[in-house]
Every structure is written in C-alpha cells, then in structure tokens.
Amino acid sequence: MKLILGSGSPRRRELLAQIGVVPDAIHAPDIDETPLKTELPRPYCARMAVEKARAVQAGDDNIVICADTTVALGRRILGKPESVGQAAEFLLALSGRRHRVITAVAVRRGTRIWERDVVTTVQMKRLSDEELNAYLASNDWQGKAGGYAIQGPAGAFIPWINGSFTGVVGLPLAETAGLLQAAGYPLWKDRT
After folding, report:
1. Which class for 122: exposed (0-12), middle (13-18), buried (19 or more C-beta within 10 A)?
2. Regarding beta strands 160-162 and 25-26, do their DSSP bridges make them parallel or antiparallel, or are they unpaired?
3. pTM for this prediction
4. One of 30, 60, 68, 117 is an active-site residue; which one?
C-alpha cells in the first residue's frame, strides 16, 4: 500500500508530517478549478477535493489524499488571486470582517472515496494602507486562497478564529486522520 499526496503544497506535506505521515509519492493533479455558475463555496470546495482525488493515477490498493481550501465571503468564492490588484481587492473585502475558510479533504482507495469538509470562521482586523501595501509587496499573497496565509506574515492580521487552525492552513488534521484510518491507512501503527 502506497500513500500518494495529490498536492504540490509544501504546507500540506508539513501538516501530514505532524501526524507522522510521509507520502510515498506526490502527484499534483491538473484540473479545471473554475467554479460552476451559481456554485456555493462549500459544495465547490468538496467537488474540487473529490475531482482532484479522482484525477490522480493510482493502483487499486494505493491511497490518494487530496484537499482544496477556499475562502468564502458570504456566497462569494475568493480563490487564488491572479494579480497583485486582485489580491488587494480580496484583502480589502476581507479587512475588518469575518469570513469562512473551507477545506475539503478527499481520500480515495480504489474506486471508494471518503470526503469531509471543515468550515472555520476567521476574523481579519481592519487593515491600514501601510499594512496592506507592505503585505502585497511581500508577494506572500501569491498562490493563496483569498490572498493570504494564516501561517505567514498575514497571521498578524487574524486576531480570532473559530474552528480548525490546520484547516485554515490547508489540511484539517483531525478529520484527515479519520479519513486515512477509514481508508485502511495504519496511522498509529508501525507502517513497515
């Protein structure tokens, strides 16, 4: 049995390592991540995780783990900004407000898929022009849903969360451990 991580995210590898899981292979799937017309954030996020899990090539006895993290402001999906201008737009929209960070995890073994999503409410402080401009100049917004990462410099903008910190980072560990165990991965036993 091999474990394949369907993500190129170094953060997801680091989070798995916290629970003693080291993937045997890493294959980031290349799928269309465009939301469907009128698709809401939570179903969108779950669909992305499952589609990613299905897109990774694996043997029948191998386990594939994929995840998707989405920032939601009401019904609006804030994906990865395509430009510094879009990052500024996202951060200004989030400034001084609560929003949701949804991370869906999908684990596949053969044709069976287990999926869970975790919703965390996040409060972002009101950003000053100086804070916003310095953050944008750092380029830390690149490749981050909603234009920020709580585990980076933007952590200084987040005074409060209600939910899973590791879910906001990109892989809710309690739920991920449960899914891996459901798929038959020997999480707490000797994996020889």
Report:
1. buried
2. unpaired
3. 0.93
4. 68
